[in-house]
């Protein structure tokens, strides 16, 4: 396992890492693998880390190429270690290794110059953007006799004593991050056998070599620093060197055997020009699970090579020595046992399962202090514990030494959950598991990585391959296959360090662009004159719409309905009234359709007819259109908004599933869809949340079902799709001729001009300006603030709103913390009945579709809930996992009635584009009368939609009674055994993802900067700030850190084509970019814009709209973007490959 901790106090850490192993009173929280914590220490603490030389561990010693660059080798001197923690070169005459040290040196020189009366030296700047030079006390200038001695005069900085230099740095240490602690922990069975007096010390060497392998990978790939280009943009580079100090420890906090290494990575790395720069740690945090997997895989192989049999561990990416039974692991995990006991006692006391916050509190109960035992006494205790359970460590060690090599016994026995026939199949399958070959595992890794992003890295694919394979192969085994050198991978590193895309990804993007171009001039647009007349305020009022359209709304509806393009785009900022535009669009569409039908029925075929369409032929065609105006959206909330405006709508996934089902299994269903959608106009709301595969499927459906027009509406800067690609953004930017309109007049925050300025800046992509304007609404809790501290502040702000504010949070963990606090307050004040009921509920396990393709990512106890037919499972069925058969990639367990069932993942999911089941953890939730709840599953027959809010009005033995909170006063009674109740949860707080598309009068937002990588980005800041109409409070840990995250990560999915290197030739599909648009028949009947579309009340404001229908098709577009041979014109058109970035400023 690997955990990563940020060192918060250089002074304390210097002592913390240089004392005895078993004397511990420091405050480091030794978390489970993968945890991210912060170490806060002080000089007064007895340190925890570096053991004395006569113990089984090792003293702190230097490691890494960066240490060699400074001449630091062998055991660590505490003074040198303290210096580098503060960002100082131990050699005061050597190169400065941090911005802080540069500033301190210059301050010292300035002080010396002023003391001696000499002219001040000009300031140099080998490292950009260092802080202003602080005041530094320096010794007086050298006396004359010293100068006359001929000795080389020392610099002012070198003239100071080491203590004085440390003191100067200590006074300004907040300007320098000291470094990070990477803790590599061996599996418990390895610790038991390696550290026992009669154990196998070779395992300690295996552990050391495994840490070497992981650190080698980290140093080679994640020693990242930043520099500025000539245009001021930052780029990332890899130095290949890290400055590290390292020690091996052998104890847990409770005194159990626990072999682990602490690797202190200091905040300095040397670039290729010889300048020391700050380390960009984000890559280490982002890929710490990969580094941990490299360590585990290497140690597993080394353990087998020295003769030990192994088996899979109980947690992901771990293993154990097979000869060490589970009882021994428990015996030597007393701290974990204590934590579990605390949790059990708390659950019994509360009569329910614990919340996440309560579980974390249980971890902190009864934390042991330092262990007051010698090594010999500890080993005697361990031996006694082993004897009590019949474990002979000496025998295990001797057996391993006599063996040529150890075996993998993970699949030695058939699963106990299989019947006789299945057991024979399992035996026939052999001793190897699924994804055993490195190429097979890497193929899975590639598919999983590119499922969520068009640009991925070797690291993304490698980690997924190691997981699928179960750590049976070393990282080098994968790399040596040459898989990452295949021609299918294209360098795409313009925005992602070492980024790659695939030919398949770029072909898909080219195909999307080609479809948009092929649909130019192919749709039936309404006459601009008729649309203009129908959009007048008077005409809209007659049809029951009493809202005056803004210029933007008017333009959007006009372009959407008059365009003859088969694909139209509406880019709309948050709060610009897209739903009002939809309402007007539906009203005009319905009115003109009815008018066309009526006139066609009344007019003689031979008589000239002036109707809403340009010609009699179009009119005849239009009469036979059955499709009308239809809607689709990725979320139920967006579907509801379309439906509320009389647009027949369904979720995008539902429509695409119906289409796939019709194509593959039900021709009659496909025939029905063709009748339903033929000639229709399909409005896709929240189109920016679609991935490439989804839009590709929509376009396939458009061709097959003969959909006349697809109107894509979205906001490119809001939260993007969970699937790869940003096709909505790409379609608009790569196809200049595409019919499109902008909704940019934000109205939602009219009551709060200051907030509106921030939202406008975010909407326009100006991250830094948006954050600065958001400052009055920020409640900063401090860089080291825990989730609990942040939740307490958000809860306090919620109470200040009188309980009317909506809480919008960043993570599900924070959502749980806030729901718990708010619900507790409602119980105390009597808003919730004291009488309640316990309801079994599901908590989403958060697995992606590709996660679901390998059994290794599931856990026993999880439940699969099927939303559609999968093999023998039908909609509504469940499978609660009892065992995981990694040999055959099979899930085994029981159904809702307790009958044994299994699912062969490859057989049932292979080749499917959808995975129609969710994976959940069963839990129990307390509900009461008055509770505000929502459902995480749609039930169409009863009108229940995901995320719709309800109030519990009562309950009894027969059922639970709820009332809708959508203003309809709709009531429902759900039987107590109704599976729908299992998807009920609290609705007091929502995540930003689920708040998208909603608005509230008052919002309390939580967006923490620390520990979340690029999850914290411009898109989330934009969503959170734009949900509020009147009042906003945003709680965070550090405004400065949040500013940096938001300005550096836009949250927009990458476009593969935009990230290819400019020296790569991009070939488009045959003929792409060469076809000219046919002259639009609408042009022959266009008259002046003034007489055609300008309603009297909009004179002067929309006068260009009629000509827009013509000029949108006359702009030079993609034909100028590509050469005649179909390749990208890289001359004047380099910007076609540039991805716009938010402003970057600190």
TrEMBL record:
Signal peptide: none
Superkingdom to which the source organism belongs: Bacteria
Pfam families: AAA_30, TrwC
InterPro entries: Coronavir_polyprotein_1ab, P-loop_NTPase, TraI/TrwC_relax, TrwC
Organism: Asticcacaulis biprosthecium C19
Protein name, as recorded: Protein traI
Domain annotation TrwC relaxase: ranges: 12-385
Compositional bias ranges of the Basic and acidic residues kind: 162-173, 1111-1146
Location of region: Disordered: 108-173, 1094-1146
